[in-house]
Amino acid sequence: MGMTLAQKLIKAHLVSGEMTPGSEIGLKIDQTLTQDATGTMAYLEFEAMGVPRVKTERSVAYIDHNTLQTGFENADDHRYIQSVCKKHGLYFSRPGNGICHQVHLERFGIPGKTLIGSDSHTPTGGGIGMLAFGAGGLDVAVAMGGGTYYISMPKIVRVNLTGRLQPWVAAKDVILEVLRRLSVKGGVGKIIEYTGEGVASLSVPERATITNMGAELGASTSVFPSDDVTRAFMKAQGREKDWAPFTADADAVYDETLEIDLSALRPLAACPHSPDNVKAVEDLGAIKVDQCCIGSCTNSSLSDMLKVAAVLKGKTVHPDVSLSIAPGSKQVYNMLAENGALGDLIAAGARILECACGPCIGMGQSPNSAGISLRTFNRNFEGRSGTADGQVYLVSPETAAASALTGVLTDPRTLGGAPEIHMPASFLINDNMIIPPADEKDMDQVDILRGPNIKPFPKTAPLAESIEAKALLKVGDNITTDHIMPAGAKILPLRSNIPTISEHCFVRCDPEFPARCKAEGAGIIIGGANYGQGSSREHAALAPLYLGIKAVIVKSFARIHIANLINAGILPLTFRNEADYDRVSEGDTLALPDIRRRIAEGGEVMLVNETTGDEIPLNTGFSQRQIDMLLAGGLLDYTRNQG
Predict the structure, then answer these.
(1) Which is nearest to 408 in space by CA: 273, 266, 295, 269?
(2) Rounded to the nearest 5°, which phi and psi values hold at 609?
(3) DSSP state of 65
(4) What per-residue string of b and e applies to 480-507 under the rule 16 or more CB within 10 Å gives b?
(5) Which of 19, 32, 157, 199 has the largest count of CB atoms under 10 Å?
(6) Residues in the chain with pLDDT < 70?
């Protein structure tokens, strides 16, 4: 029996475990990346491990999230990260060089290699045949120190692509169609592997759009084969020597198969407030639009930008629409300037932003009150734009550009002939904004530069013998990390200061939650299904840790978040019977008696609701390594204990 591409890549990097779906496996990691919103904490954790120099083949720190410098905090964090990189052997991508996933695809990604990044959209690397995972910062720190990365062995889902995209239909519409069919929970515990004759018709940037937004499925990662299209892309980047072919065996067996005829797709939009709330643009009708934002790690490639420029050339943005455009990298920006497309964008009235994440993570460009914003981004969670009642739709660059001209949601197929955009034979190569580390012989001469906003990792403690605390918060299904620990221009600069950022924890659900935690000193959170979906931000675990949360009990968890809770030493448990969720109310006094022994022995865990007298059975499902981590108080303590 043949192997899938994902199975081949896993087997080539397998350090421990059996490749049986659901069992824990350990992987050797070749590359890591961080971005600045998660990077400071990741490097504080790396320093705490006492490893003098990274042990990966390549580790890169990107500055792309916190580039709005309204105070000293972001600049101090950037300075700190740059000094850590110089001393400890990482490459540093300076502010303005671009979004981590776009730049990594261009300059560092290598087919067949493993990559983990402290950003949930790291699976973008699957567009060139990498096995790329989003992870918490502590997992990335351990990998930089030479440690193994652990996940549950996923099932492999085949998405078989046939036909080819029709004019005006985009790669964004492909992944929106997958989301429409599978939902934001449909990829949990799975790797999405793209196969079929339609693959060859998709460029690397198109493939990267699809793997990028696979994160919204809850998937472990997504991957395309490395083929002649990949080779041509890498040759154009001056990196053909890094290319190698990787494909699934012809007789590979998959756990599930999804068939998509590319030629049957039409322009789609994810409606507020979830990436899987997908409808056809033509069916939604001419909704008045207030804002269009084009960019993000999903849709900021050169080809995306050239399509938008072709649509806007010689025209003017509708007077009721604010159009902002953010190229994904300095390479893209430079090439737009050289070929004249940048001038076309500016002449049409577009507001050109720097090469950064920007409005995607609420860093500027918030829409007006109750405004309709079309975005080429990957998430449209409520409030994420920075406007509490903003109505965000996720669309392709073509749909956004067409709508910016008309002032209403517009199917781009109504514009006539589609522009023909071809991949360049060679990209403009200029890595002058990437700073290499100091030589190993000089690293001791480098000082780490810390600002006053940088605070140490929160205090942890071994798992208690028993836990008794109130249910300080009860929330519903599909709680995102944006609910738990919001992003945005006011909060992101606090990412290196857990005591201060914790004051914003869950305030979108309950503004009194932080104060209630401080008054009680300890607490338990009750949640619904798919708890913790979205970003990889470990702050959604570290802030509750600081506030005294001892356990989170839910119907089900998102993959990265449950790992982050275990890393932080917070006990993640699930209801054996989902209906038992209704037997706990906010404010109830709860007990987990004899919990340390029960976890250590893998025994049955019972939640006692001391307010009602109910006894509720809970599931654990931890591996022995996870048990040892929880007993120790989290991954950092476990790693120290392991030496």
Answers:
(1) 269
(2) -90, 100
(3) S
(4) bbbbbbbbbbebbbbbbbbebbbbbbbb
(5) 32
(6) 643
